């Protein structure tokens, strides 16, 4: 149980385009989802926390208009990287939690490459 | 402030040798502690977790960790390392506050010599 999926696993796009990444909790209802980014050989940096049905809370330094987060249902959150640039190339990981468990369950990650 | 420190960036051990990865945390409430492993290009795999109770926690793949409140530490150990253990290891602390928001350490890269 407690499986989280991400789609796509890899995406390559041109500079200036927008990319949407989906995060789904497959067998539980996720009241909260988190989005992280990880640069090569670095740790995970929390970008934002999203609760179902409300606006995401962004960490300091993360541009809200650049990284649009939608948590429209208890099993789906999306991260849209708008007008992507090469510096947005990174590994994006989502996680989900439910009030039942005191932990987060992580997705497998999405590798974004912006040319 | 909430934070996690993993003082060792890289560690190299010989296959069959014992391993200890250090983790120190700062957290203002009752901590929930986790160790994850990440292979290159992959997501995170949970090795073990501590919420309460017995301070020595057993995990998968033969790993264990000990919670020491007085030292604010949660070190990961394995008595005999296998070549397949080579990976990046992350310690994380969370709690009931902030919807279980996690704070990650910077990671320790483990190399295993044959």
Q: Summary?
A:
The complex is a heterodimer of chains A (115) and B (114). Chain A is mainly β and 115 residues long.
Strand content of chain B: over 45%
Strand content of chain A: over 45%
* E-strand count of chain B: 12
Uncertain regions of chain A: pLDDT < 50 for 5+ in a row? none
H/E element sequence of chain B: EEEEEEEEEEEE
**Overall mean pLDDT of chain B:** 93
> What general outline of chain B do the C-alpha atoms trace?
globular
Oligomer, anyone? heterodimer
The helical percent of chain A reads under 10%
Taking all Cα atoms into account, the compactness measure Rg of chain B is: 14 Å
CA-to-CA gap between the ends of chain A? Answer: 37 Å
Number of helices of chain A: 0
Per DSSP, the total helix count of chain B is: 0
| Helix/sheet category of chain B | mainly beta
Structural class of chain A: mainly beta
Summarize model confidence as the mean pLDDT of chain A.
92
Main sheet overview of chain A: 7 strands, mixed
Keywords:
heterodimer; A: 115 residues; mainly beta; seven-stranded mixed β-sheet; 0% helix; 52% strand; globular; B: 114 residues; six-stranded mixed β-sheet; four-stranded antiparallel β-sheet; 12 strands; 50% strand
Describe the structure.
The complex is a heterodimer of chains A (115) and B (114). Chain A is 0% helix and 52% strand. Chain A is built from no helices and eleven strands. In chain A, the strands form two sheets. In chain A, strands 2, 4, 5, 6, 9, 10 and 11 form a seven-stranded mixed beta sheet that branches. A four-stranded antiparallel beta sheet of chain A has the order 1-3-8-7, with no helix packed on it. The mean pLDDT of chain A is 92. Chain B has no helices and twelve strands. Chain B has strands at residues 3-5, 10-14, 19-21, 24-26, 32-38, 45-50, 56-58, 64-68, 73-78, 87-94, 103-104, 108-113. In chain B, strands 2, 5, 6, 10, 11 and 12 form a six-stranded mixed beta sheet that branches. Chain B is globular, with a radius of gyration of 14 Å. The A-B interface holds A 31-32, 34, 41-44, 46, 49, 51, 91, 93, 95, 97, 102-104, 106-109, 111 and B 32, 34, 36, 41-44, 46, 49, 51, 90, 94, 96, 98-102, 104-107, 109.
């Amino acid at each position: 149980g407690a499986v989280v999926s991400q789609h796509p696993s890899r995406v390559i796009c041109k500079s200036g385009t927008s990319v949407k990444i989906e995060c789904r909790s497959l067998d539980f209802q996720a009241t909260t989802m988190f989005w992280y980014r990880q640069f090569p050989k670095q740790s995970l940096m929390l970008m934002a926390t999203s609760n179902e049905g409300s606006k995401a809370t962004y960490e300091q330094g993360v541009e809200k208009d650049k990284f649009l987060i939608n948590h429209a249902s208890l099993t789906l959150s999306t991260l849209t990287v708008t007008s992507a640039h090469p510096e947005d190339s990174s590994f994006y990981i989502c996680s989900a939690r439910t009030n039942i468990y005191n932990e987060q369950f992580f997705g497998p990650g999405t590798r974004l490459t912006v040319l | 402030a909430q934070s996690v420190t993993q003082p060792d960036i890289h560690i190299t051990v010989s296959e069959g040798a014992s391993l200890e990865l250090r983790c120190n945390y700062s957290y203002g409430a009752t901590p929930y502690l986790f160790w994850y492993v990440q292979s290159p290009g992959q997501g995170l795999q949970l090795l073990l977790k501590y919420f309460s109770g017995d301070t020595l926690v057993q995990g998968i793949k033969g790993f264990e960790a000990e919670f020491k409140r007085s030292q604010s530490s949660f070190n990961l150990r394995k008595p005999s390392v296998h070549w397949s253990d080579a990976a990046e290891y992350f310690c994380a602390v969370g709690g009931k506050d902030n919807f279980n928001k996690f704070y990650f350490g910077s990671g320790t890269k483990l190399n295993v010599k044959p």
